[in-house]
Structure formats: structure tokens, C-alpha cells
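Second opinion, please. Pick holes in both lines of this record:
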Amino acid sequence: MRAWKKITIIVLVILLIGGGIALYLSLIDLYKIKGVLKGAKEAFEQEDADGLMAYVSTSYSDDYGFNYPMVRRFMSGLFKDFNKFEVVMENPAIEIQDDTATVQFSLWISVDWNGAPAYIVGTNQKGANVRLHLKKVLMKWQAIKIEGVR
């Protein structure tokens, strides 16, 4: 009987340690994804195309027909055409499954248009319902697809 108690205690300790490690790793991924959102927002507002593209996978492809080079070209053109970007992301819901994640949130992007703010994503009443798909590549999360931006 005494041997069974030791085995049971060892198994419970292993399960607790394993569960703790799994929880720790999932929390790290959660914070990394929040870091991607924050970093992309800051790069957008600073009109830093290279900084923004660091969060986009080279295998990016979306339903709008954009791939990585097209997104880079589009963002560079957007930063040339407009000034004073303001990005607002509300209520991000993050769902992680293995090495992929989906983030759903409301998004507003406004710019300075001839001295007045104008929305290029969302409206003054409602943000665009955006779904961002991410993939973990070498311990780093990158966007592979975005939906809901019009």
C-alpha cells in the first residue's frame, strides 16, 4: 500500500508540474500576441512600414487577393498619401490553438484628411469587426490573414 501512495503522489506532482508548464506557455503566447497587436498599432501610428511588416508573415495571403509584397506596397502608399494615423482596437478576443491563433476585435483607423479626421477603417459610430489569423513561427507570432477590413 505504501508504494501506491508514493506512486500516486509522484503522478500528481508530475501532473501539477506539467499543467503549470502548459499554463505558463499559454500565458506567454497570450502576452506575445498582445505584444503583436500593440507593436502593430504603434508602427501604424508612426507610419513605419518596416516595423509594421515585421508582424506580417511572408506567407501572408487573404481573401482580398493580397500577399506579403502587395501588403508592403499598399502600406507604403497609404503612409505616403495620409498623415496622423490613429488606430483604436477594442475588445480583442484571443483564441489560441497549438501554433495558430485567431484574434477578433473592433478596429477604427482614422487619418488626417485636409485638416479633419477621416475614418479609413470603421466609422465614427462603429468599428470594423476584424478577425486576424496568426501563426507562430520560431517563437514569434505573425499575421497570415486578416478578414473584415474594408
Summary: The longest helix spans residues 2-45. Helices lie at 2-45, 49-53, 68-81. The mean pLDDT is 87.
